[in-house]
Amino acid sequence: MPVTTTSQATTEHQLRDALAGVGKAIGHPHRLRLLELLAQRAYRVEQLAELCDLNMASTSQHLQQLRRAGLITARREGRQMIYRLTDDRIVDLLGLVRDIAQSQLAEVERLLGQLFPQDIDEAPTEVFTRERLLQGLENGSVTLLDVRPGAEFEAGHLPGARHLTLAELKQHLHELPADRTIVAYCRGPYCTLSHQAVAYLRQQGYRVARLADGFPEWKRAGLPVEEG
Amino acid sequence: MPVTTTSQATTEHQLRDALAGVGKAIGHPHRLRLLELLAQRAYRVEQLAELCDLNMASTSQHLQQLRRAGLITARREGRQMIYRLTDDRIVDLLGLVRDIAQSQLAEVERLLGQLFPQDIDEAPTEVFTRERLLQGLENGSVTLLDVRPGAEFEAGHLPGARHLTLAELKQHLHELPADRTIVAYCRGPYCTLSHQAVAYLRQQGYRVARLADGFPEWKRAGLPVEEG
DNA sequence: TTTATATTCAATTAATATGTTGAATATTAA
DNA sequence: TTAATATTCAACATATTAATTGAATATAAA
């Protein structure tokens, strides 16, 4: 007859505790922000602290919670610690949480409407899937534009992408082709950078579209990237 | 020039707060247990309370946290509330958390070794993928055995599955075919029921294998189920 | 209506998580 | 060695979350 030892329930409970640790780790806005940043590239504690507007001790502690949950790893390099995602599946995890929240929580829907307002007069911006972008790059019908911060571009970007931050866009406007569709991309679906770039370029009369998601998802999909 | 309103940072923070809510929701062992159960079938509060060994008030509060996070919905039916997963993607979420934890946390690896000990002498139990099982069912080379509790089987099971709990297995042993492989399945990868069934049947001389994952994953994959 | 029942709400206490400060550690450069 | 720097640890105050109890609500049956 099947045996159910007394310790089995305990083990199952411990197992559930360990899995809950992953939930706890992503269950805080600061840690989500850290993961979003680390999905773009590896960072030192100091940089993360600055980008998240946290002090170093706090940042370090959050990073260690993420590490204990198996979501990031640390490597010492000289006198600094470099943190990175353990695994591309963390990108999937963040994406899945985003998708579930977006489809089930009215609050998220509302906030997205606020963050990405649709100008009702205009036709909606064209959105490229990864497949369509690949095709466009192959037949040379699109110019690819990375509008993330320079450091993120340098650590890795889509092949052939031109890099311009929003601030640089105005001065280099004439360098962009008027006869081809410009496809802008940024950190991911909830990042506003590519939306802002698209709005500006469109206003300036360019043919412009937006990649549906960002660099991490592209890399996660196993598509080629140029690394700095 | 691109505009960054003062409220944008706030909106992004609120958005991250909402997403963190999903993490918080799955960041407690009791709530994970509740989700595992609800992945099998819809349940009333009372049943969940009993299965999780919690009192009703506590159970109800945990359920409401899951509901606020958009992971489950409630429907009143007479004087009772029926809870169910909002979405099959919740099954994906649990699976992804499991996979990440398993590959990144030594503690999880250790606990699994404890929960599913490999008898070193024996050849390891054969594990069927869903694809292989489908094929085996088609050509009639396997008998499918559901070893979950009766209520879960009745709410939905794999087509053609025979239901026997571990307790019932002994008495109905002779009804099982000796000339075909018996494939047992249960709640999912971390459920011990199918392992126990396999160990017993094997010891009794049956040709027996285990489905890699359980009923929720099968259903989630869009494969046919027989509903009670 | 009244009564019985399932569930949720409210209030309390206990437990846990967070942010902050200053000290401790580990590594490089002097 | 010593000094400088990046990071982590320890300890505290504060905030959030959990479990428990008893009361309140909503529905169905009497």
Automatic annotation (TrEMBL), chains A, B:
HTH arsR-type domain residues: 11-105
Domain Rhodanese: from-to ranges: 138-227
UniProt keyword annotation of Coiled coil present: no
Taxonomic superkingdom: Bacteria
Coiled-coil parts of chain: none
Annotated CDD domains: HTH_ARSR (cd00090), RHOD (cd00158)
Record flagged with keyword Transcription regulation: yes
Keywords attached to this entry: DNA-binding, Transcription, Transcription regulation
Matching Pfam families: HTH_5 (PF01022), Rhodanese (PF00581)
One MF term in the entry's GO annotations: thiosulfate-cyanide sulfurtransferase activity
Protein's UniProt name: Metalloregulator ArsR/SmtB family transcription factor
Organism whose genome encodes this protein: Natronospirillum operosum
Lineage: Bacteria, Pseudomonadati, Pseudomonadota, Gammaproteobacteria, Oceanospirillales
